[in-house]
Amino acid sequence: MCAFRYERTEVPEETKDERMETFGEILHSYSKEEAVLEAQRCLQCAMPYCVQACPINQDARWYIGLIAQQKFDEAAILTLRENPLATVLCKTCYHYCEEDCVMGGKGVPIAIRHLKRAALELGKSDLLYVASAPKKERIAIIGGGPTGLMAAWELGVRGYSVTLYERQPFLGGQVDTIPKYHLPEGDLETDLARFRGLDVTFRTGQRAGEGLTPEGLLEEGYLAVLVAIGASDPRALGIPGEHLPGVFPALPFLLGLNKGPEGTVLFGRTNRKIVVLGGGDVALDAARSLERLAADGGSVTLVYRRSRANMPAGEEEVGGGEYEGVHFLYNRAPVEIVGKGHVEGVVLQATQPGPPDSAGRPTLVSVPGSETTFPCDTIIVAAGEIADVRGLPKELDLNLSAHPWPEGPKGDGMTDVDGVFAAGGKSVVYAMAAGTRAAISIDAYVAKKRGRAPTPGPDPFGGPTPPTLPSGYGGPTWHL
Ligand SMILES: Cc1cc2nc3c(=O)[nH]c(=O)nc-3n(C[C@H](O)[C@H](O)[C@H](O)COP(=O)(O)OP(=O)(O)OC[C@H]3O[C@@H](n4cnc5c(N)ncnc54)[C@H](O)[C@@H]3O)c2cc1C
Ligand code: SF4
Predict the structure, then answer these.
(1) Rounded-to-integer distance, Cα 147 and Cα 96, Å
(2) Spatial separation of the C-alpha atoms in residues 268 and 257, rounded to whole Å
(3) What is the band of 340 on the pLDDT scale with cuts at 50, 70, 90?
(4) 163: Cβ below 6 Å to ligand 1?
(5) What would the pLDDT profile of 109-119 be if each residue is shown by its tens digit?
(6) Which of 119, 177, 191, 401 reaches 20 to 30 Å from 85, CA-CA?
(7) 102 C-beta closer than 6 A to ligand 2
(8) Which residues, other chains included, contact 221 with Cβ-Cβ below 8 Å and sequence gap of 6+?
(9) In angstroms, rounded to a whole number, what is the distance separating the alpha carbons of residues 451 and 457?
(10) 178 Cβ closer than 6 Å to some ligand 1 atom
(11) DSSP three-state, residue 111
(12) pLDDT in tens, 212-241
């Protein structure tokens, strides 16, 4: 194995022109030869920082080592043994593992996320999970995003009978809003097809809060309930003019692009002058999607109140937006949306950094008298998300001051109602980690009630050996 090759085996990418043609995937797969070459760069560290940085502690060394030996089928099994949403993650994960890979110190980190994709695409990955000894004990989950799905899998492989209630007609949660150029249609379904061997029932189109409450589910005989409803309702900006026709929240727009006619019917190929307000990944997803829809004469400008360096969106997104032609206007905050019966512009005020806040982040100071009107006919608002807790009982104490998503205030994720847990996460893999922790807490809670020991995590493919943590592993670095 070549120990020190600092350059990454190039990941094949679409050119700008190809990207603008369609919503086709930007990144293309490695060939077998490319995957093996990249995998052989991995040092197989005894102290694997990549594993420690991964919220679900997936041991990338295992599947990377197998790819290096051209054992793609074995690599696929090992990937899926720890990671039931691997097809989604290998396209969407913010790859915290790569940030901490030791190769990043002197060169480019191993392309761990892309090698996970190689394992699944080049190995046999149409496998089926099986439950360990069925328990005939029922658990209910509310919310079909990554938190709920991961918890369903963890409980399902431990032999529980799980019913998952989801308000939308489809599963996935915010994953359904990720543009197709990152996550092609059908990838989540590929992962969920492996759940068929588990006693997990998905009941879509069922909103909790009206008639269906966590307490009601306990009364129906479920031994515990997990509230995993995330935070996927758009947050308003709170400025005058926000309700004018021509102003759209980003999340329903992105969801409509993927799941319904709304997004494309609203915009089609468009020569609109569009402003996107926000600086996070959601704003970038909206701006980059709109850039793909823009016809000649159309334009997309993203306005953010801080500088580029302070943008919450990742470099991959911001750099991608720049490359694709999105215009960026920094250090401007929207103060009013104006127009007679329809959006005609947004009033922007200049901002500059003030003294640091308690977290050390510069505060924002607006510059009086600096207001200018930026003309536009469409505004997309990406000002953050809030949870839809309408109808859920206040007694749960969903700890919404800590995160936008509900989370049990106690260490084990339990809410103030006995047997009701709540969890969520800031990205797909963090949400999955939260789902795992909630499932382990639920199993411990049920086991204690029944006077037995908690169920150890089994091999989800029915083998004799459960997955173990890697040697040298120093404990999770869950920075939630
Ligand atoms: C546009 C966009 C792009 C993103 N891109 C990425 C990315 O590239 N990589 C990444 O790692 N993360 C990304 N994220 C973040 C990631 O998708 C979320 O962190 C993750 O989905 C959170 O998972 P969750 O299960 O906790 O919540 P959610 O995904 O929000 O799932 C919660 C589910 O609960 C359902 N629900 C809500 N209320 C009720 C109710 N009362 N009754 C029944 N069901 C209910 C919702 O419909 C939803 O399906 C993105 C988010 C957005 C919005
Ligand atoms: S830190 Fe990087 S080099 Fe080390 S095992 Fe992980 S992927 Fe390989």
Answers:
(1) 18
(2) 10
(3) very high
(4) no
(5) 999 999 999 99
(6) 401
(7) yes
(8) 138
(9) 18
(10) yes
(11) coil
(12) 999 999 999 999 999 999 998 999 999 999
DSSP string, 31-94: PHHHHHHHHTT----SS-HHHHHSTT---HHHHHHHHHTT-HHHHHHHHHHH-TTHHHHHHH--
Question: Which residue type sits at 324?
Answer: E
On whether the CB atoms of residues 377 and 273 are closer than 8 A, the answer is: yes
DSSP 418: T
Q: Which amino acid is at 287?
A: A
- For ligand 2, is residue 115 a contact (CB within 6 Å)? no
User: Which atom of ligand 1 is found nearest the CA of 143?
Assistant: 34
pLDDT above 70 for 283: yes
Residues 81-129 pLDDT 10s: 999 999 999 999 999 999 999 999 989 999 999 999 999 999 999 999 9
Side chain identity at residue 463, one-letter code: G
Query: 43 is written with which tokens?
Result: 């040092």
Determine the Cα–Cα distance for residues 213 and 231; give it in Å rounded to an integer.
18
* pLDDT at position 400 over 50: yes
Distance 385 CA to ligand 1 centre (A): 10
CB-CB contact of 369 with 379 (8 Å): no
* Selection from 385, 373, 173 nearest residue 280 by Cα: 385
Quick check: CB of 49 below 6 Å from ligand 2?
Answer: yes
> No. of H helices and E strands in the chain?
16, 16
Q: What pTM value is reported for the model? A: 0.95
Q: Which of 232, 255, 289, 385 to mutate to test the pocket of ligand 1 (most atoms within 8 A of CB)?
A: 232
Ligand 2 centroid vs 37 CA: distance in angstroms?
14
Ligand number with the minimum distance to the CA of 47? 2
Residue located nearest, by CA, to atom 30 of ligand 1:
230
In this structure, how many other beta carbons lie within 10 angstroms of the beta carbon of residue 401?
7
The response to whether residue 176 sits with its C-beta less than 6 Å from ligand 1 reads no
Q: Sorting pLDDT into bands at 50, 70 and 90, what band is 263?
A: low
The tokens describing 440, both together, are 């382990």
Taking residues 285-289, what's their average pLDDT? 96
C-alpha 168 – ligand 2 centre gap (Å): 39
So what's the pLDDT on residue 475? 53
48: tokens are 């694997």
Nearest ligand 1 atom, CA 405? 26
Instruction: Judge contact between 373 and 346, C-beta under 8 A.
Output: yes
- Look at residue 433 and tell me whether its pLDDT is greater than 80: yes
Cα(37)–Cα(399) distance, integer angstroms? 47
Burial of 53 (0-12, 13-18, 19+ CB in 10 A): buried
The pLDDT of residue 226 is: 98
